[in-house]
Every structure is written in C-alpha cells, then in structure tokens.
Amino acid sequence: MLLELRVKNLALIEKAEVFFQDGLNILTGETGAGKSIIIGSVNIALGAKASKDLIRQGADYAYVELIFSVEEPEKKRRLKELEVELPEDGTLIISKKIMAARSVSKINDETVTAGRLKEITSLLIDIHGQHEHQSLLYKSKHLQILDDYAKSRTAPLKEEISGVFGRYQKLARKLEAMNLDQEGRLREADFCRYEIEELENAGLKEGEEEALEARYRRLVNAQRIMENLSEAYNILENAQTGSALKSVSQAAEYDEELTGIRDQLYDADAIIGDALHDVREYMDRFSFDEEEFARLEERLDLIHNLQAKYGSSIGEILEKLEEKRRRLEELENYDLVKQNTEKEWKECEGQLETLCGKLSALRQKEAGKLVKRISQGLKDLNFIDVQFSMEFRRLEQYGAGGYDEAEFMISTNPGMPVRPLGMVASGGELSRIMLAIKAVLADTDDIPTLIFDEIDTGISGRTAQKVSEKLSYIAGSHQVICITHLPQIAAMADAHFEIAKASSGGLTTTSIRELDEEQMIAELARLLGGAEITEAVFDNAREMKRLAGAKKR
C-alpha cells in the first residue's frame, strides 16, 4: 500500500506530506484549492512527463516521493523478478526530481528509466483518472476488461497463441518473399553465390580483428615504444638502490630497528633488477617488420570493407554468411522449399484456428459471469432497469490475442433493446459503469492501491450514495484514494484529508492536512451547506457521518 506522499516546490505546493491509511482515503477541498496537483504529483512520480514550469517560483527544483510498503510474498517475488531489491521491512521508495534541464526518477535510490518505472509501479498502484471512463467508448478496451477479469484462465492460452501467431507471420512473410519469377530467382542465386564465395575466401575467424588491431597498433607506435622504454631503462639504471641497500645494511648492524628498511630496499633492488632485465630483453627482441606491417594493413582493410557490406563485426558477418547459404539452398531447391513452407504455414494456421477457438469459447463462458456481476454492480449504482450484455464477433484476421472482437451492450430504459455502450451511455453513466467494472475487477486484481480522481462527475443524490457504498466495498480489499466534491462519498472516509489554498507575502500556497472526527464533520458541512453553514447543516453532517459508519459496519 501507499504509506506516504511527499511533495516539495511543485506548482502551488511549497512542502506537503500526506500519510495515507488503510481503507478509503478521501481528499476534498474548495474548487481551485489544488486537488488536481496532488493526483498530478502522484502521476509525475509514477513516470508522467513533468514540465519545468511546474517548479515553484523561486525554487531550483521540484521533488515528489512516494513511499510504499510491500508485504505480500507474491508481490515481493514479482518485484525481485524485475530486479528490485527490497529491504527487510518491504519499503519501496519512488522519487522524481524535476530540474530546469532534466528530470531524474529513482527507486530505492537507483536511477531508473520511465519504461522500467512504469513496469514496476504497475504492480503497486492503479490510477482511474477523471476521463478514463471515456476508454469504454473503444471496443478494444472491452475485450481487455474481460481478459483482465479472467486472466488466470485466459493468459496461458493467449501466451500460446502469441507464440504460434509469431511463427505464422514469419512463415507468411517467407512465402511472400518466395513469389519471384524464374529469372529473378536465377539472378538472386548468382548474386548469393558471389557473396558466399567472397566471404568464404576471406576466411574470417571470431576474435581475429581484435588480435590484428593489437599487433598493428604495436607496429604503428614502434618508435614511440622504443623511446619510452629507453627512457625508462635509463631511469631504472640510475636508481642506485644497490648503494642505498649497502648503506642501510651497514647501519642496521648497530640498530635492529633498521632491519625492516633494509629488507624493503632489498626487495626494491631485486624488483628493479628484474624490471631492467625484462625491459632490456624486450628492446633486444623488438623489431619493425615492414612486410608484417603491410600484411596487417591489407588484412584489416579487407575486414573493414566486408564490415561495411555485411555487418559491424566478424560475428555478424559470419551470421550473414550462414543466412546467404540458407537463402541459396532455398533458391536452388525452390519448389520443394516452397511446398514445405506452405505445408508448415497451413499447419500453423490450423493450430491458430484451434487455439483461437478455445480462447473464444473460454472468453464467452467467462463473459457470462462478468456480465452478471457487472449487471448487479450497475443495479447497486442505481441503474434500476439496466440490461447489460457482451456481444462477440469474429475478426477476419488472426491476431496475437486471438480472433475475437467483443463489445459491451446496454439498455438503461425498460422496453429498449440493448445497443453498443458508446451509443447509449452519457458521461456520468460511463463513469458509474467504469466504477462497477473496477469493483468487479477488484476481487481478482492484486494491485493494492487504487486512486479514483473525481469518480463522482455528473452524479448526485441517491446515486452518489450508491457510489460511496461501492467505493467502500472496494476499500475492503484495497487501499483506495479518492478525490471527491460530494458529501455522500466523503462521509464514507476511513481517513479524510483537506486540501486548502492560502496567500501570504504575495505567494499562493496549497497545503494538505488530515482531519480528525470533528474536522471531518465540519468539512462535510461545508460540502453540504454551500455559502451559509447553519447548525442544521452541522447536524445533517453528523447524521451523515454516523449513517456512513453504520453502513460500513
């Protein structure tokens, strides 16, 4: 779960710390107080792009930090697979520092890329933004929701289909490439033979280039090597360690404390003597061979020319040689290879048909369960006479995820036929439908923290009460963080935070604080009362909070 959010110098926030709790965490505040900045800061920490304009005026940088506690063994195992090492207490710290020139993201003090950050945080937190329900207008989202719901059953089949589909595409591309006329095949075969002969005659070996370049570099720098060694020899020869050893040895006869220095000088004299011998021996045997130099130069030129044509390394060139040999064999045995490829492609297509059929049947079976649960969730959210179903169609082409296209269908009025979701539901209805779906997925979803940013858009009254109950239900198995402006939802809070804006010294600052019981009631009264908050409004707020507590129990 998300334990803490820390924000510094971001937009209107100078410094803020929020300690989130288990269950339902509610955030409220006046319009324009900066509620969007709070969720925005979480998004930034999770990898969203952050403009340097977000840095608070007068500050050098902005900083956001999220502190998570990871307790589930399975979650720890999956993080370890992603090479995330957790301390014993399971704390995971995600931070982002936004500077004028660049931004830096870290996980437990290790700098990470945006892609890696999103991969890791997707295991920990899911944000349902203000407009995410609009994704329900796209049919591809509907199939994704079904697969998420039934992932323990569908995932193995989808993985198998993906592998077979990859092979199916590769074979299809191979068949397409084989559609050459006889003259074209003969022309390509001749060119393949020429390239194969060129590469075979070169006789390249792995590691050859590095060895040749080392010898070439030695000969190119022969004069410099000899000059440096000559200078080193003269310095070593004049070191006079032997004389120093003799003097200290004589002194050591009178003072035993000098025996250590004597031994050091003895070792030094021996080491310098060995070095002099080795340098002289190297200089005596070193010679510049013009013929060898010319051979090395010619061989390296050949290798570099082949690299320009076939690959950046000898390893790549040898791989290209094998590829050319296989292609020549295909061209020389064209009819047989094409026949075998077509046979393999048809077998692969048959596998795909069988696997996709199994997946489709499984999906339709699971869709019945999902539709039933979503329908009940919609009724809980005040869709009284709703009809909800899922319609399947087969696509003309196979895909990595099967051949299904699926779409949610709905009727919200008695006597009206079900129609595609995007053609019937309003923005507020889409928001509630997404909430119903999230509630169903929450039972199978292992993401511990869910954030709902103004899920209450376009609703009020009894519907708002139903939404609050659904959020409270989800919070029974997940940590839920919700921004709202409705008192019915705020009353359900297990922890309630107020976001406020104030001006001082010509600067505007957004702050956030956790409310105690009486402060919660005062904030509910503000949400209920509007311009004037009377004692009756306070009484109403107290009653709302009491009823919410009873409902949760």
Describe the structure concisely for a colleague.
This protein has 553 residues and is an alpha/beta fold. Helix content is 56%, strand content 19%.
Entry keywords:
single chain, 553 residues, alpha/beta, 6-stranded antiparallel beta sheet, 6-stranded mixed beta sheet, 19 helices
Ordered list of secondary-structure elements with their pairings:
Blueprint: E1 2-10, E2 13-19, E3 24-29, H1 35-45, E4 61-69, H2 73-81, E5 91-99, E6 103-107, E7 110-112, H3 114-121, E8 125-128, H4 139-149, H5 151-177, H6 182-202, H7 208-220, H8 222-237, H9 241-252, H10 259-285, H11 290-310, H12 314-332, H13 334-380, E9 387-399, E10 402-411, E11 419-420, H14 421-424, H15 427-442, E12 449-453, H16 461-474, E13 479-483, H17 487-490, E14 495-504, E15 507-514, H18 517-529, H19 535-552
Parallel strand pairs: 3-13, 3-14, 8-12, 12-13
Antiparallel strand pairs: 1-2, 1-4, 4-5, 5-6, 6-7, 9-10, 10-11, 14-15
In angstroms, what is the radius of gyration?
A: 37 Å
SS-derived structural category: alpha/beta
Poorly predicted sequence stretches spanning 5 or more consecutive residues: none
**What would the average pLDDT be, to the nearest integer?**
88
Kindly state the number of beta strands.
15
| Outline | flat
Largest sheet: 6 strands, antiparallel
